[in-house]
Amino acid sequence: MPIFSFLLFVFISSFTPGPNNFLAMTYANQHGLKRSINFCFGVAFGFFILTSLCSFFNIVLINITPIIEFPLKILG
């Protein structure tokens, strides 16, 4: 996957409604907008790291599949 497509996906999906955004909205409602800015940046950074790790391990799994395919056929 080209890096631009990946970053575009991460950027768009980090702003769509989901549990992270609802948690950030609740935090901002309870503590105010100024105090919640760091929390929102942390949520966005954490989502980016999580998505990057998933992408990395997916690439590793794709590369290792031909190596472990034969033992899995025997064991399966």
TrEMBL record:
GO molecular function: amino acid transmembrane transporter activity
GO biological process: cysteine export across plasma membrane
Membrane disposition: Multi-pass membrane protein
Entry's localization field: Cell membrane
Listed transmembrane segments: 41-64
InterPro entries to which the protein is assigned, alphabetical: LeuE-type
Record flagged with keyword RNA-binding: no
Top-level lineage group: Bacteria
The name this protein goes by in its record: Lysine transporter LysE
Lineage, highest ranks first: Bacteria, Bacillati, Bacillota, Bacilli, Bacillales
